[in-house]
Amino acid sequence: MTLDAVLSHIDAELPNATDRLLRLLRIPSISTDPAYAEACETAADWLVEDLRSLGFEAEKRATPGRPMVVGHGGGDNGTGGRHVLFYGHYDVQPVDPLNLWHREPFDPEVQDTPDGRVIRGRGASDDKGQLMTFVEACRAMKAAGVPLPRITFLFEGEEESGSPSLVPFLEANAEELKADVALICDTSLFAEDTPGITTMLRGLLGEEITIRGPERDLHSGFYGGPAINPIRVLSKILATLHDDTGRITVPGFYDGVPELTDELRDQWQALGFDDAAFLGAVGLSQAAGEEGRSVLEQIWSRPTAEINGIWGGYTGAGFKTVLPAEAHAKVSFRLVGTQDPHAIRDSFRKMVEAQLPEDCSVEFHGHGASQASVMNISDPAFEAAREALSDEWPNEAAYIGAGGSIPIAGYFKSILGMDSMLIGFGRDGDQIHSPNEKYDMKSFHKGTRSWARILDRLA
Amino acid sequence: MTLDAVLSHIDAELPNATDRLLRLLRIPSISTDPAYAEACETAADWLVEDLRSLGFEAEKRATPGRPMVVGHGGGDNGTGGRHVLFYGHYDVQPVDPLNLWHREPFDPEVQDTPDGRVIRGRGASDDKGQLMTFVEACRAMKAAGVPLPRITFLFEGEEESGSPSLVPFLEANAEELKADVALICDTSLFAEDTPGITTMLRGLLGEEITIRGPERDLHSGFYGGPAINPIRVLSKILATLHDDTGRITVPGFYDGVPELTDELRDQWQALGFDDAAFLGAVGLSQAAGEEGRSVLEQIWSRPTAEINGIWGGYTGAGFKTVLPAEAHAKVSFRLVGTQDPHAIRDSFRKMVEAQLPEDCSVEFHGHGASQASVMNISDPAFEAAREALSDEWPNEAAYIGAGGSIPIAGYFKSILGMDSMLIGFGRDGDQIHSPNEKYDMKSFHKGTRSWARILDRLA
């Protein structure tokens, strides 16, 4: 049997593959909210069953948080092929603000849109749809009797909530999980018809700050003036995070931020990225990051500081003249090169503390810290995958960067000693982490075909 | 019959008067939240019935929001006495954060505490307990057959939500509501055993700001850097509201702010106010208002800008790397002297707009605007009331200021052409607008006795 038979099988099976994905999307596996813990178990069980139905060994493995799914199989050519670890995550983002969804987030459906057929629902793109492209490729290889490389599956359930159990799990199961190279499907196409292999990923450092002032909420008439207002203190501190040129002011922040090589800058310029179209698609016209940097640089190779959430005082309908006892913010930093997340966390905390008035205190809560990843593309598996992708898609595959953080790639390197190939089929318009998330049917279909081509070369 | 008989009646009736107040406190008449509109109707009905039970005419009057209660009666000495309008409000503040209450906010009870007996529950002090001191005084005068001055009652149900219906109602019913002087019971004792007649009240200007950037929530990995973050823009703007000396930077803000007269400053210094104790009671040690001003000045005679609420992005449990489409704040200004709230609103809005990046927009929503009030104490009714209060309490009554805003006093002057006597029996520790609000039984009891003495003098 040949690869062509596999691809034909994928084409014919697309309706059934879509039904399977819709079933997985109906499980509301939000990891950050404990109310959905049971749904995460259900999603993990579903994946275990699906892998077993393909003849793979598969198990749900408990962690202190949401479970991992681990599976093994393939190696049908004996010891000749590569041993790959495939990683995806079955947990999804929260769905608020719910009122902006046009349909229940966990009642997915296939929709015909002016831009083509899409699968609509929370997790359709991030990451259930992407994860299933790989599973469906394996299913088609099995059905067509085409040899698979040796595969270890690892599906995580805490990717959207900082992966608290991941490192201990990798450390405890390193011997079982080690492979020659990791395959990660959680990234995007570079453009319509142009697949990419992501070789640069920003790291992520999350911090939650609580500023406390008066020991209880006060009436702003009786105390306004002499009593310090924690929201005012928090605003003042957050306002100092960036200077007027968009640079981040945390002391030592730029230690380990490499300047882009001329070679890479040339490659990226050749991609013909349309800054205005990228910004215009979300209603913007000006690049708001560091002055003098292109949009691709600002996203792929420059670090950031963002306020992801802020709250304090009265936030309901109407007005309440309260002078609140505390104010909160969730702040995150995207990291590049060899920036050290732990050193930056320390420096950020010191910077906040240095700006506190005498009557205020601060409490910090860390939400994960991962370094950036830069892949070594001299491994021939990268070129094999690039050629396989180029066979499937109209345009040649490119090595690209990514602004998002997939800490797993760093952990695979540091704990399991292997590089990662980041190959995904998402699109900028997928609205992941936003209302009305979708995954293009074309991404799902050609993504599955792409993995079949890659697996065939790696076997 | 004499005043002594009235006071004896009040003493004997205290348990029944307390029961009546507890019944009123059980009605959750939160005006700012539409979910409690029906409860506001119930509270108004309750007051109508209670006034009628005393032989007063009373009616609930519809407004576009919560209803007014209007009553008439007294004038038992013919045309000789004063005609007073008594004002209170039956609506209460929201109760969040609910988890900080030690008891259901609307299940009030009498509690014995180390500082004496208190009535605990939302609205106990602000303003149901205060309002009922006047009603109970009337009840005792009626029961003892002692003549009342002519009284018009006006109970509002929107005081805690900016009084949107008040001005149109006063204008439409000016002839019915006009009196010689208004009595308002919504303020505090100056100190334990020292009653005050408040003669300076700060005005209040409320503004809600919504800053919009990207047209939808974005993933901070994919867009962080080039996409403008509305929380960052909002923080930067709010951080400019005060300069390093605590002065407010809104252009023209200090127009109409009078410098304190030496006479008044001397009077206030003589009150022996303890700055450290006032701040220490809420866990603070430093006066955070304008540099070089005493705490009493900062509260009574200086204007402020406060951020009463802020929200945007992800504020739930865990972390979500969202770059939000919008960010919000509720800002209020306390005004003094002849500061013009409308001019300040315009100037504030211009100041915000001037700081907006090109890709952001702002929407403003006004939440009420009232000028400060300064009473004319040459009206002999003030001195009569001061003497009556001094008869009831251990220490002589004082003319004082108040940091809170009671816009009604300004409207009584501008619409009905009368001054107001602001007499109340609250205490700094009443935790109004906060969890675990209470009213001292002593305030309730001696407050009722105080009004009886005042009414007797004014009749």
TrEMBL record, chains A, B:
Signal sequence bounds: none
Domain (Peptidase M20 dimerisation) ranges: 201-359
The entry's keywords: Hydrolase, Metal-binding, Protease
Pfam families: M20_dimer (PF07687), Peptidase_M20 (PF01546)
UniProt cross-references to InterPro entries, sorted A to Z: Cyt/Met_Dipeptidase, Peptidase_M20, Peptidase_M20_dimer
GO MF annotations in UniProt: metal ion binding; peptidase activity
GO biological process annotation, one example: proteolysis
Family matches, as PANTHER family: BETA-ALA-HIS DIPEPTIDASE, SUCCINYL-DIAMINOPIMELATE DESUCCINYLASE
Annotated protein name in UniProt: M20/M25/M40 family metallo-hydrolase
Organism of derivation: Mesobaculum littorinae
Highest classification ranks of the organism: Bacteria, Pseudomonadati, Pseudomonadota, Alphaproteobacteria, Rhodobacterales
